[in-house]
Amino acid sequence: MSSHSTGWRSALATTLTVAVAGSLLATVPGGAASAAAPAAAALPVADVLDVDFTDGTADDRARGLTPTLFGDPEIVADAARARTAYALDGDDAALYPMTGQYDAMAAAFSVECSFRYDGTALAGGEQDFCGAKEAGGFATYVSGGRGGFMAHIGGGYKNVRFDMQAGTWYHTLVVWDGASLVLYVNGEQVARTAAVGAFKAPSVGAQSFAIGADAQPSNGVGFFAASTIDTARVYSSALGAEEAAALATAAVTDPVAPTADVLDVDFADGTATDRAQGLPVTEWNEPVVREDVPLGRNVAAFDGSSAFLYPLADSYDALVDGFAVECTFKYDDDLPASGEERGNICGAKEAGGFSITLYGSNLSFNPHIGGSYRNLNVPVVADRWYHVVGTWDGEVASLWLDGVLAKQAPATGALLPPPNATARNLVVGGDATTNNRANLLAPATVANARVFSEPVERTDVLALRRDVLADGLATAPVTITSSTPAAGSRITGPTTLSVETPMDEAVGRTSELRLDGSLVRPGDEVGPGLRSGEHTLTLRGNDVFGRPIDQSVTFTSATIPVGGGTETGQAGGSVTLSSVATNPSGGDVETTFVRAEAKVAEGGFQGTVTQLPTALEFDHQQAEELDEPLQPGDDVLVTSPSATGIAFQRHDVAVSTAEGQRVSWTGTVDPTRSVTLRAWNGEAWEALDTARGLTEGTVSLTGDVRPRHHHDGVVPIMVTGEDPFADDLPNEVRPSFEDPAAYDFSLAHLTDTQYLSEGADEPATQAERDVWRRTYTDITEWIVANSDQRKIAFTAHTGDIMENWHNLTDDRAKAVREYEVASAAQQIIDDAGLVNTVLPGNHDNQYGQDNGPDALYNDYFGPERYASLSRSPRWTASQASYQPWKPGDNANNYVLFSASGLDFVVVSLGFGVTPEESAWADGVLKQYADRNAIVLTHAYIAPSSNPDGRGGGMSYDGMSVRGSVVKQNPNVFLVLSGHEHGVNIEVRKNLGQPGNHVVELLADYQFYKVRAGQVGLGGVGTNTPDTPLQMGSSFFRLLQFDVDRSEMSVDTYSPFLDDFGATEYDDRNRYDGTEDDFRMPIQLQHRATSFATDSLVVLDPTDDVIGTDTARSGWPAEVTWDGLTIGETYAWQAVSRDAASGEELPGQVSQLALFTATADGVADRAAPVITLGASDSVAHGAAFDPLAGVTARDDRDGDLTGRLSVLGTVDTSQAGRYQLVYLVSDKAGNQSVATRQVSVQAAPAPVNARRPGINGTPAVGQVVTADQGRWTQADGATFEVQWLRDGTPIQGATSGEYAVVAADAGTRLSVRVTALATGRSPVVATSAEATVGSVAADAAMKLRKKVKQGKRVTATVSFSAPGTVPTGTVVVKVRGRTVDALPLRADGTVKVRLPKLRVGRHKVTAVLLPGDGFERTTVSRTIRVRR
């Protein structure tokens, strides 16, 4: 109870009379401010009719009458008054027969009626609370805003009246003593009128008494009053003033709530303290004690994973013959479809005990009495406060709901405490289970929890309810205090819908907001689509106390068109702007197109944060400045850093103060990530739009810029990329595994094979036992056979390996046999050397009581087994190792292994996890914090009852392991478990810290059933073909991991049945198939998020009108926009109005668009540009290309150089100026002309770099050639050659060759080269002189060898030389004596007639004398003269 309530209740105890008149019953005009002190006189007893609903019925206690009901009146508990009452909604009534009673009332009567008017027509016509009039009789009523009573006395109706208000309780008593009518209101006389004469009874057929209405003919009812009645009595006597006061006092007597003596937890004080016995409280997973605004007090909030636990072990002796439990709660999620997995509110049951539990939509009080649970069920709804009391008095169990007895059932016998002493606890927010744990937790809010050692009565229940709910129920009903659009306002354009109530927290989750009957939500944009006229916004539903909400506001609107989109067309050199709007009236739409400025974001920064900033300026990591503009259409992407938390880009965009601004972002992001466009609103980074990525193409986000987003002339914008870690990855359910090429490695998970092990031992026939054995070995054999193909890197068994080692009384020999079956099946995996591990379930370790090295489990699955296995080649190849938690004990262990380049640590925790074991696991995970971690445990989460297998509660060890192990280590990405029969798929986001996402999977098929005939056992043993066999655990799961995408695909398969998906074998028919074939995100340590921005622009409208067009509703309006520049970004706004309204403020809708101008949309009026980049001066004689260095380029057609034409030529051999004309045209016919003057330079004077030379031997008769030497600047020059003899030109010797003549002999021969260039003086260079030497001539002589004596002979002598004919004088001698000397003839010969010679031999010699450049040359012959 709040401090306000406590203070009020304290005041009530000392000033009861004030409370009677002021707090609970209204003060009436004419009445005193306080009632008289409670009268000592006994209360009168009504003898005609006595109805007060205190027994939970509307039956009459005076004459035992049961009423005829009209409509659906309901017995309710009035929390503030702690009284039972009758609620009538304006068409309900209860009718009691009065025939034969009016004679007793002929002399006097009194009528008592205690009521509250709940309707809305207080000032309207007659409405009756307690009515028995029809042409006679009497009635208590309201009319014209005043309460009253009328009775037909003395020939007509006599009235007494009083002022009254709606929603206020009034106790009325009217007394007729035969002389006057006296009206008492709240114990005070407020009116009297004379009433002399006979009292007339109603007409026959209408002689009945109606509660909530008036009696009518034919035993009907009418004149209904929406009201709550708690007393209706008729007395056959006239009561006095003291009796009136006593009755009024009794009507408001405040019962005192009993005090709980076993457990008294009331969170109103802000703690979870027990005020009854001071029982210690154990907190599970951080429940929150917080204020509940509608309730006006502190409460405990549980999220479905948290609870408070209180020990009751020493208290059960006080409960065994009777008790009561009180629990006030509100369920905060959708009610589960079935089951109690998420439905325990105040639970103390475990094979005994009691609880307040939700089974689906039924609330149950279920004490274990006389050997069974006595479930008392009543339907409830979510998101509503309920006050629940369950009582048992030794014979009857009762369930009270909101002060009203809802269910009763016989319950004889004794209350059975939970057999296991460690389960004797009461859990607030869940249920109790063994080992002092919380279980089956609920997402609920609880106000109090109490246990009484004695049953409580009706008045006790009402008082208890008052103390916890009175303040909440006293709050005003939910109304709409303000809204947008506001009541009575008129809107002309899009408007963001908002609704304010005095207490938004009091509005139930199922309440609906509708506009003209259509469902809407706060934040929706309304207006477009409304026709001119009045519109109604309605809030209907229930508040969190179950009270109806029916509130409406009306407003008007102009006819507001609906925007149908925009389009920018670019073709034929023009831009066409098109906008579609639909007129709700069906009339034409006038659209004005207005230019908008595209304010491109430029300058900013980016980085990463762990969670969304709460301030405009904030710290961040991976900081990087952004300098370039985020321009649309430039095909430049700016990529954010990669973040395990949130990646962001932050910009300030300068804008005007114009209305209708809109921000637009485009970019890319992975389909499994999301990107959000945000603007700072002064308090937070408000999300304007969000989207997931696309496989191909860009994502676009847009949002309206509101005045709240403007700050000092800029709009602060932030784009964030986040990992939604959403369980919504597309997946097709197929009877197959994934393609091994599509994933990197896999993990096999089997669990709860207990029935398979039991079945291999227990059935009577060997045939049955063999089949059951195969159900297990088929799994392990399949895993071995497919380990390579399916890339199985690890195999996990999460416990309940066998069945019958659960209780301390179990047969050890049987357990040994089952262990041997399981061990042999698992040995198949071991023999193949596969990396694997197991852990004990509750059926393997006697529910957590067979522990340590000597446990039976360790005899078969002890550390030595896995230590030996870890030395196998497959383990070595996987870099795998094994370590038990303690020497000799494999109840807990960890395995290290590597797969696909990643390192893993797998921590296994057996059933019944202790704090010591949790601390060990936490230490291992912290030791290997850099490894991706998997936690295996037996009893972690409970099955889902939803078709897709998502959502369930926590199992036996779940809260402990999650809170102390998983939550503390962000490297944990996966938890696998079994224990409870069914499937649960949980994605725990931000577990323990932002960005820490964990997938939790339960896959326990042990109770799934297979027909015996399906597996060949029909007719074997006691089986029929339809006998259900619990072979569901022949299914296992293969988890297939895609490392790059950080995703996991899960398939479920039974090798024994050769069947995918176990859904059809669940005899509870809970699931739809998607629970066994799905794809999930996984938080591998490299999983990160980034995005890339293409553009970020704020569209800022101006007043510049582009054009206006009128179109039919739903048809495009169009204008053209010319004069744009290619490549520039443009924005525009289309403002559409009802063309025919003629209103001063017509309805309108605006649409903004953005585009980049292209060549297609801009007319080509620009001629190509000719660039004369080449030199205009050309060297004389140089090669000249008129197109060299000349380009032509068009802004549309690009490079047109190849299309250039040239008019004119340049002769580089002639110095001078030449004119060239260049012409080119683009495709649009735009022509460009450029003129160029080219100067041919005069040839430069040649320069001799190496003097000329003579090639060859300068000798007479030889031909020598001239080497003109090396010249520079000689391009275009001509050369002349002149041979010189002793420096003097040799006449005619001007060629490159010269034949040396005899005249040259002994002279100095040289060659002179003259270089001639136009416009330049000749340049002369002369070779070095070479002396010409004499020539050795060849000589020959023709002479007869013999001659007769006396004969004369002639000697012919010839001289020759290379390239010339020798000249000179030849001397002929015979025996040394000169016989002749004569010159050589022109052919180089001479003939000499020798004189007559004597007989004998004679030597004839011819000598060419030296001279003329020839050397001395001699030739001789011998001649014989004979006789």
Automatic annotation (TrEMBL):
GO:BP terms for this protein?
carbohydrate metabolic process
InterPro entries assigned to the protein according to its UniProt record, in alphabetical order: Calcineurin-like_PHP, ConA-like_dom_sf, Cry22Aa_Ig-like, Ig-like_fold, LamG-like, Metallo-depent_PP-like, STPP_CPPED1
Query: Which ranges carry the LamG-like jellyroll fold domain?
Result: 107-242
Signal sequence annotation: 1-26
Extract the Pfam families matched here: Bact_surface_Ig-like, Laminin_G_3, Metallophos
What Gene3D superfamilies does the annotation carry? 2.60.120.200, 2.60.40.2700, 3.60.21.10, Immunoglobulins (2.60.40.10)
Task: Tell me the keywords, alphabetical order.
Answer: Disulfide bond, Signal
Q: Which GO terms describe its molecular function?
A: hydrolase activity
The family database entries (PANTHER family) matched by this protein are listed as: METALLOPHOSPHOESTERASE, CALCINEURIN SUPERFAMILY (PTHR43143), SECRETED PROTEIN (PTHR43143:SF5)
Descriptive protein name? LamG-like jellyroll fold domain-containing protein
